[in-house]
Design a protein that fits this description.
Blueprint lengths: L2 H27 L8 H9 L4 H27 L1 H24 L5 H4 L7 H38 L1
Length: 157
């Protein structure tokens, strides 16, 4: 199949998925509010108007399957580069668990939470936020100093 035709098909598919999602979301947002009472909310949840939630879950599941499929394809086609990606994922997991087990001084009181949350939820959330922050910082450092490192390597040869 020609590349132009494939791009057209992908673009039409993307817009169709977005239009379906927006249409279903309008149904979701037009539902009852808390002021309408529990009966109205229960009836709304059991109706077909909750299809937007299921559609979103379908899109997420499809994306996960596509990513895993691409990952398996890459392992078969370029195993060396793919293994470096696996090393990056493992490093992120190790960093997360180090942050999780090192704990956090955050408590429900210090965070001024309105709803109750267990200490493990607070620790997991804090570890995730710190892990993402560190990954973003490292990524920014690579973007900023990467070109200089390339010039430094080429000048040594």
């Amino acid at each position: 199949m020609k590349e132009d035709k494939m791009n057209l098909i992908l673009t039409v598919t993307r817009y169709a998925l977005v239009l379906i999602g927006v249409g279903l979301s309008i149904l979701l947002f037009s539902g009852p509010t808390v002021a309408d009472g529990k009966a109205a909310m229960t009836e709304f949840r059991e109706s077909g108007s909750m299809t937007a939630i299921y559609y979103t879950l379908f899109i997420i599941a499809t994306a996960v399957v596509a990513v895993l499929g691409f990952f398996v394809y890459q392992i078969a086609m370029q195993p060396k580069k793919t293994l470096m990606s696996i090393v990056g994922i493992v490093v992120a997991f190790v960093l997360y668990f180090v942050m999780y087990f090192s704990g956090s001084s955050d408590t429900m009181k210090s965070l001024a939470l309105r709803h109750e949350a267990s200490d493990s939820v607070i620790a997991a959330t804090s570890a995730g936020v710190y892990t993402i922050g560190i990954c973003i910082a490292v990524g920014l450092l690579v973007v900023v100093f990467g070109p200089f490192m390339g010039k430094l390597r080429s000048s040594r040869k």
